Fold these 2 entries.
Entry 1:
Amino acid sequence: MLGLLVILVGCEGTLDGPRPLSPQESTPPPAAPGTPPVCDGITTAIAVPLRRLTPAEYQQALVDLFGSGVPDVSAVYPDGATGVPYSTFGSAQLVGDQQLRLLADAADAVAVALQPTLTSCNSGDFATCAQGRLQAWARIAFRRAPLPDDVTRLTSVATDALADGFSKSEALATAVSALLQHPAFLYVIESTPDTTPWSLDTSAQEARLALTLGGRLPDAQGRTDATLTSLSTPDGRATELARWNSLGGQQRFRAFVYEWLGLRTLPTVHEPAVRDALVEELNRLIDDAFTSDDVLATLLGSSTVYADRTLEGFYGLTAQSSGVGQFVKRTATWRVGVLTHPLVMAKTGHQQDSSVILRGRLLYFNVLCSSLGTPPGNALSIESGLPPASTPRARYEARAKNAACQGCHQFLDPLGFGFESYDGQGRYRTQAYGAPVDDLGTIRLGGSALDGDFTGPRELVDRLLANDWSRRCFATQWVRSTYGVLEKNQQGLTSLACTADRLGTALNNGRSLEAMLDAWVRDASFTQRQPETSP
Amino acid sequence: MKLSRRFLLGAGGASLALPLLESLMPRNAYAAGMPSRLLVFVTHEGTVLPRWMPATGALTNNLSQLLAPLNGLSQKLTVVSGVSNRVAGLCSSNGHNASSRTLLSAALTATAADSNGNLIARGSQAETGTTTGSVGASFDQSIASALGVRPINLSIATPEETRMFFQTAPAVASQPNGARAEVDQLSDAVSAFNQFIAPNLSMGPVDAGTPAVAPFSSRLQQRRAKVLDPVNESLKALKTKVSAADKLRLEQHEDSIERFEASAAAMQPVDAGTGMPAAMRACQPQSLPANYANRSNDYYAWYSAQIDVMVNALACNVTRIATFQDQDMYSPPFQQFMASPPAALSALGAVAFPPMQSDWHSNVHGASGGGVGDNQNNSSLNAGFTFYAAMFRLLLERMNSIVEPNGATLLDNSLVVWISEFGSGGSHSTENLPIVIAGSNQGRFTTGRHVALAGASTDAYLNGGATTNDLYLSLHRQMGVTSLTRFGYAGDASLHHGGIAELER
């Protein structure tokens, strides 16, 4: 092992802890809308804030630790991820008084459910046995070898409970509750007290891969010395990436795309049976992209429709399916990728009606990666005070005449018009408001090559896919989701913007998700970290 | 199995939001205070009034001969005299039936009322038989109904038939004139616990002599602060190994733990004997008294067990209303059970029973009958009435040992009403009933005083002074039921004086 460590000195990661790196410029200069940042001379080290496990990750971690019989406490575990782009955003996952209580509730519920099964220490020396069990669980839960003090503290929870009259299985379950509230379990941490850049150790790298691509804790293979050692090289990381991608990558990609499309919660306008079928269809469309040679083209441009008997009725298609749940793949001219999927259209609609604002907002922020200030506090009252208008176009024109609204809505609403051929439930239509659908849209980023008019989603998507900014934006969104932080802060762009740009370049070159992910684990920023410039 | 947040927030778990175990605290506890609770304690055959009556005005710890066991708790008591059950006098009776049926209802007996609830002329009333009931609910059940609470009703009686507590609605169609059904009373503490408390606290059933153990989920909740101790220690250690920005994030978590622990320590007074928060101890019923299995021969164990069940039911907020009734007029057969009182009672002045006549009823009558103001110095009566006072004291002590989240004891947060169907037992009089009210209902009820209403018959309480109708109306108000303007039989305006103002402050 010692010889191996010597050989690895020149590699990018370390097996035995963070390694300081040479400082460079930490932030790129501002970039124009729709153009990549200038990253020459910018450090490859990125600042990644601590974050708490998401409810989905926490639930899966329970399964990893204790098997599939654990209760589902994902609805109890505190989910602070509201008002943020992705559920991984650490700033929304911190622990205050309310979260503390819910964490305890979730942990206790699991402990109570497990207690009857925790009988392995009922005979023999309890303290020794409990320590062994807790050491093993902590190794999995903490994603690295636990500190001796942590194991001692957890063991004391069990022995103290036993001394207070708890049965042995109850005492062990009590320590399990403590384990599940332990910061080394709850938090994903990639920082050190260092003020100069450092490199992640291989345990942190394995945890990064497992959580990002598997949505779970490192598995037995990922915890072996051989695997951890292999992560010290880019090729080794690529191999481990491929393993995780095959294990859980598809599910995780679905989860990312749902959040990218604003579908962390589903719209409620559809009948439950329709909604269930639409979820299945959207999953299949995302899965097509996951394996596609051109992930974004498939996501945004596919004309594929998956319809069972329920969706045939919803879409008004001729019957080809043999029944409910029997999905048949077909094409339709009105289907233009996931952006036109009814779940997306309904989420950006108002019950039965469309919304050029919400649809434009989704495109502007999530597909074009542009940003705007926050709406004025009285936006809703201004809106309700606008002159009555019979069509979205007339209403937009009234809105555009108001100085308080025009600054943002000139960018948002014209984008949304491109999707006017989909009603509030996401069904295709050719007539609206007593006239042919008005789906003349406009991209306005401010001097970008993307700028200009378009008619309907097909023209929009064709233009997006012809410009490399779209894939850079897609990569940026994936980076945001993966690291739980924006690539900019109050001071401007951060070095993470350059990571996103490099992944965008890889995606433009290779087109597949696999190409982007391979570039990710080979990028120096996969292992290199630097302090945050501001919390 | 998917647990909803609502589930955990409700019963099982979330309780520690506030540092206290809310699931074991009154469900409708709120920031402004704890919910009012009422316990009605009834013993039989009145008292010997001259030996029971304390001095008027402020109470001292030298109450009276028959209230001596309560010395030491005088500042948590209100003695009420001068209240009469005058409805009983409207009903034909052998002296016991009407006084019992009307004691807590202040309503006519079924045989004294016509189908419209009006009083039948006394000469036309049928002789009250043992099957009659009351045409009105007892005040405890009335309050419980108004509050939407299911009361717990216990007794020391076999068979469980005591005919004082009546439900709010007619339940027996065959009873005349809308007579209310009798409340089902439970005389077996094991049954009471298993039927009433265990299901509400998610506990398994207990057997006599077997300790009742709270479920693991409850005990795990109680240890939350201890479980968080090592978590906090690890947080402190982890803080030194992360960036300055992450350190700030972890400190938020740390601060929450420390706030939790600080408030938990402040809110949960620890019982020195058990090391368990006092309130929690109350919600984790101990084993029944050692001799409970032989309760038919150990009156003290039987009484104690029922007291434990009532106190646990109130402290754990299984209910807000509890009632307890001693055996009927013929019992308890003290001479059989109480040859030598246990030390806990002896310390309060209880004594072994001297030889007495065949039963408690006969002793109360005495060899010469008796009359109002009788002052029998009968050692058996002294022993019996002292026993009642001593058991009442044990009940109060039990309640006073439980400190609740507002920092007051269960006793301070409650009203405990001790009453009997007679004033002077010897004469079987329903005038001037012996009433002791313990607890201050969270400061809404002034204690440490003797409210003597007997002398008020010429002013506020015309025609014989304050009535049980008045008393129960005021107790409704004390419990937050303010919709009534009168309680009990409505056909006689002289029974109603708008309550007893002295008992509403």
Note: The radius of gyration of chain B is 25 Å.
Entry 2:
Amino acid sequence: MHQTDDISFEDVYEAELTHLVNMATFILGSRQTAEDAVHDSFVRLHDRWHDVENPGAFVQRATINRCRDLLRNGNRRNKHLAKLATPDSVGDVTDNSDLSTDLVRALGQLDPKRRLIVVLRFYGRHTIAEIADLLSIPTGTAESNLYRGLEQLRRLLHYGSRV
Amino acid sequence: MDPVSEPALSELDLAEIDEAFASAERTMPSTAALRQRVAALGEPPPRSAEAGRLGRSPRTLFLATAAAIVVVAGAGALIGLRSDRSTPEVNAADDEAVTSVPATSTSSPPASVVEVESTETSPAPGPEIEPVVEPDQGSASQPSERPFAPSDRTDDPNPPGDGSQGRLPVSVNPVPLGFPTPETTGLAVEAIDVEGLRPIDGLRITEPTVLEGVEVSGSIVIASSNVTIRNSRVTSSGTYAVHVEAGVENVVIENTRIRAVGTSVSAALYLQSPATVTGVDLSGGFDNIKATAGFTLEASYLSGVNRRPESGLAGSNIRAFQGSDVVIRGNSIIAPWQSPSGNAIFVGADSGPMRRALVTSNYLSGGAITVLTGQDDHPFEDVTISGNRIEAGSWSQTWIANRAGATVADNQQLDS
């Protein structure tokens, strides 16, 4: 029996939307871009609703992959993310006035791949094995990136941009 | 968390990072607006009996989607299907290709430039006088499906190109204060009296000319450098109301109203050479402006895109296929409300390179995707879309789809 037999589309977005937007915001550093990424994912879920076995998992994976795409092309497509490296410029992203926390600034200085893994681990509450599966990377790669990302993040949270 | 896999950081460090996330989460803005956007999708149709192949492992998803793409592409080729939405492309570098393509994006502008070019003919060379076309005042005075204008407007802000069937609904909301309207563009810029305009027929301009204070009934073809059209009105049912031919320079169109009327108008303004367009009130055509050269468009009001009779699909207000030094700044550009196709602005490298384009400080509304960038094997460099105000919910798919790698920042959704 498929989960979609029992739940409605509304059930899914009520359950997943806020968490996914926050997660995408941590990954992308832009609330606006995060909302668009999550919206795209829900549109995709909507289009494929009748084929989806686990809607929650589907939309989560869709969001993560959308974030990956955006990060992968980050230098070209999202130059504004670089601004996150300097605290004063966080507010330059129009709708990010509420995101100027130390954490967001620190995340903005991490290598995108490490940032993604750190967020999935700490905010997404995924295990290393799950992250490796989600990103189609070896477990060891996920682990080493998490370790380096956490180390860097800890230093950034302690010492700001001087590290 | 899984302590076995955790790197060798102290528990204190991990707790601190954990708390940093929890603290940051508490400061996150509301998701109410996005919730509304998603809710607007409605409940999907019921599941089919053979459903349930997705939501499994990435590998399964990839194979299932790849198979579906092959089937759909094959079927489409066999029966000649055309769709406004693109067939998803498999990203070979990504095992999770099923979700690597944005669901709301399109791979190219809804209507192919090749198709447009193949069905249209440019005005014939040589001296040309277009037949006089009376402005379609009767249809222009009819109310739109979603009336836009304050009641005291004397001119329809979204005049139809063909008067009825081709007309598409526009925003119910007024243009925000400070952005161009029909009352601040065209003849209104210098308060030119319509009664004082000198009526002339359409013409082909072959030498440096200043065309000022005229009411043109027919098409204008600009085949010479150093041409200015100012404080005038142009009404045409030709392929293009105003056509700037290739190979000319220093063309200026300012404070002029351009109306493309009729069902076969490709574009109200076709730019094959650079031009500076300022203070223009422009409507009609499948596209308001079609450009294959750089141009500057400022302080202008664009509206009234028509449906294509053969497909029923709407064009775009601006379709810039290639060019260098494109500036679209400080305009109001009103695409059809939640249209199934078309864009307020398309900027792409479809037919050649697109370099140094800036789309900024505009008020934009409507379309399937309000702002779309696209690329097709040509360089797409130094393109910025920033500081625009886009009417929330006016699109049918998404507000910005950046498929070609523009810098997108500081754009805002504007609630009515």
Note: Residues 139-159 of chain A form the longest helix (21 residues).
